[in-house]
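User: My notes are a mess, but here's the protein and glutathione's SMILES. Can you give me a structure?
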Amino acid sequence: MEPLSENACFGGSQLVLRHGSRVCACDMTFGLYLPPQAQDGPVPVLWYLSGLTCTHENAMTKAGAQAHAAHLGMALVFPDTSPRGEDVADDDAFDMGKGAGFYVDATEAPWASHYKMRSYVADELPGLLGDFPVDMDRQAITGHSMGGHGALTLAMGSPGRFASVSAFSPICNPSASDWGRKQFAAYLGDGDHAAHDASLLMADRGFDGPVLCDTGTADQFADLLRPETLAQAMAARRQPGAFRMQKGYDHSYFFVQTFIGDHLDFHAEALGL
Ligand SMILES: N[C@@H](CCC(=O)N[C@@H](CS)C(=O)NCC(=O)O)C(=O)O
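Assistant: No problem, the inputs look usable. Here's the predicted complex:
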């Protein structure tokens, strides 16, 4: 693993690291924030999965999460959203290919050779965190938009792994949205689309911990996100958690940074901090 940068941040350290990914068959870059408490021993960790067009850098520089994480004593991981490199397939549309891995393992050409973001985030990257003072028995997960979809589907698909899950303006029902149908057809072909649909997973099995979901009432992508499908599924299942529509907020990082403190407090409680 190669350190690309390290910056002091709220008494802790913001690292950017690059490594050769076995599952994505390319170099991958991620951000890792270690709070000051990590100097005394392993700390719980919150995964932050980002949205369309993002790299590891957007949330790391724009979500404002580090101040809260430093106060609470929580590490933050910021993975990239797709494989990278010249030989990695791409698409002209911003919502396909690079920057749009959708946290699935592609099975179809030309995507299958590199687009394995589910395995990357769920299996490979956690294995690499053993080099750092991070307590992998205490994990929680959050994400924004496509990353909210990733957080919810990974949490519900990995029972017992995450103490809590939250999402900012998640894509809630990709198998019935233009943010999902096109990508699942390309990446997964006729494979199991429902296994990657948060609202269908919520209806089918729910999550064995608390859920927090925030979406802005002025979100310009609301018709693609379909928040009503997750709200309905949570209520029908009696899922412990909160589903909130935040008045006046749009899809941007101004929305994320407004509520990131709420989300970190929510995860801290579930993680026993
Ligand atoms: N570029 C797209 C929008 C993509 C977008 O809003 N991406 C969100 C996540 S879905 C994001 O976080 N963008 C990066 C940023 O704001 O830093 C468009 O113009 O329609």
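The first strand starts at residue 2 and ends at 9.
User: Great, I'll file this with my notes.
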